[in-house]
Amino acid sequence: MILLEHAPALAIAVPLLAALATPLVSKAGKRIRNLWVILSLAFAEFVVIMLGRDVLAGNVHVYSVGASVPSLTSTGGFPIRIILVADAMSALVSLAAMSIALLAAIYSWRFMEEHHSLGLDKFYTLLLLLAAGMMGLSLTGDFFTLFVFIEVVSISSAGLIAFFSSGESFEAAFKYMVISATGSLLLLFGIGLLYGKYGMLNMAAIANEVSMQHSFLDIAALSLMVSALLLKSGSVPVHMWKPDAYQEAPAQVVIMMLTITLLSLYVMFRICFSVFSLVLPVTMGWLIVILGAMSVFVGVTMAMPQRNLKRLIGYAAVAEIGYVMLGAGTGLIAMPNVSGFAMQALSGGIFHMINDVLDLSLMLLAAGTVFYITRQQDINEVGGLAHKSGYLAVLFMISMLAIAGMPPMGGFASKLMIYESVYYFNPLLSIIGILGSIMLLAIFVKIFASVFLGVPYKGSVRQVPKSMMFAMCVLAFFILFFGIFPNLALDLLITPAAEALINPQAYIGGVV
Amino acid sequence: MISTPFMAVVVLVLFGLSAMVFKRNLIKIVMAVHVMGSGVNLFLISLGYRAGSTAPIFTNAPKLEMALPVPQALTLTSIVINIAVVALMLTFAALIYEHYGTLDARKRRLLE
Amino acid sequence: MTGFVLTTAAGHWDPLLWLAAFIIILAIVYIIRSRGYKKYKRGTEQTLPFFSGNLPPVANIRSSNMYWGFFEAMGRYYKWLRRAHTGVVNDYVYSFVMLLVVILAAMTLGGLL
Known about the structure:
Chain B has three helices and no strands. By secondary structure, chain B is mostly helical.
């Protein structure tokens, strides 16, 4: 039907048009504007779910923008239009991104109400623009669309980081924008190098051509693109913008920035696995694995002495990125014949991407709720909140156990897969991973004890609103669901995605 | 020998990167981002040039060898994006000056 | 429906068995705890925790003091780490350029071998 045929374009277009119409709609009142935002994101979520169901039935879904028939990709033998491609991996990450955007919009119904003097219609416009950018980033099929949507995402998140208009948030937004602009310009340089060599910008067409010719230009373009995408995802040594940005942004914006981090990792895997699959030297896989192990260690040790709650979660997010890179880098080392342990490592890495988004989002929303009910950011000041709001303590404990990788949460299943398979390749990296998990648990026990237990807080504590509680409960439900039934998630969602990544011929054949 | 536009690209990009590392003033850092952006735009344009070709417009074309039009479209997009990025960064720099009274990048406020 | 067992390449992980074991252990703990001394009256001083004669604490322990031994033992590493995280934007770009150089050098050497 028509919704399914035009699904990739609708998934990008609906949040974009809703974003541009929000300043007009908000003239009609607060409630109508909130409903407009949530309904447009819900409609886009419905479109993405239908696209996902069609893709998981087994075919790569391509869409060329502006053709007479949407699946007419190549008229003269090579693809000529902007082509949006959705295979199993893209469908998985776009579903995760859209769900997080919808939950962020539901959460911000009550969270942002007291800041209405700062202009909430502009906030919702930027939020919808960020959601549209995330969709474009996950559904892209050629390199220049990738550059455009990375810039859309960077500019909207920089505007949202500076939303609370304190001096520190402007400084964090400035630093984020400078380093983001540098990374994107070098990404464009790499894309230009690839265009100069092959004359095409489409990812599948270049994947077809790269298997025949291989020279220094390829290596230079790949290094530039990979380092720019590592910058956007925040691995060591370019992780330093993450704590600043996560500290200053509102909590629901931080969960969307977390998803952007994972989307840039997805794009890097798409380039390494599908485009440069056959000519990739083993060095790239080892680089990613070593940088992942360093990210785990530096992220965890730097998170221990922090006092600001969201800054600490920023460093923990750096560590979680390290786990994904450990898992998927091990799969990359074994390309092009990935089986047994390497396949398990890749599946573990992808499963950990989804679990990471769920766990850290729940913890960030809980931290935002703590800030909302007590108006304090420093964990030395608050205490004893478990007496006032027991549900919040239970949700925080669920997210804490999930990040540290304790059963029966989902984080344990994916971390188990990563530990076992990375141990097979190199025991030292797996030991660093396990130590990182233990130290993460230590950090979060400290936070839980000082925020929720102990002497009760002397200031006034407000009630937790129902919409925020609803968003957090949905996330907790999915964490527990993926923990108790990991086999279901693996068979339905993760294994098709991993198989789509390691099979570049299916990706090329769908487009060319 | 490498032809002149590509040497100019290398000079501009290295200039922008080194100015971003060594200069303290926030406005100079923004200028360095813009210079680097100009370097990358020059690279994209000079990718599409073929020797002895003219503008890729069919109406009243003097000859049929034309430069590639795709990099010109990419460069236009990149110029527009760079304008938005530089405007945003200058706004942040102005607001930082209003809040703190200094434009020095080394006087850090967010600790650790 | 397939079974609820996650089969990894080196073993099994069955979350339902784990949950069953957890509930059984909780039940055992509850039974042991309920066989306690029933003569204390609730709400009086007899049910408070025992602090060896000292008064119960009224001040919150600052959470930054919690892992003092860990920070002391890794003092040199932490001094180097805090010096690396300056917060100045010039250093951010510098580390990005270093990452780019390292990746380029490693890929060139790796591609030639």
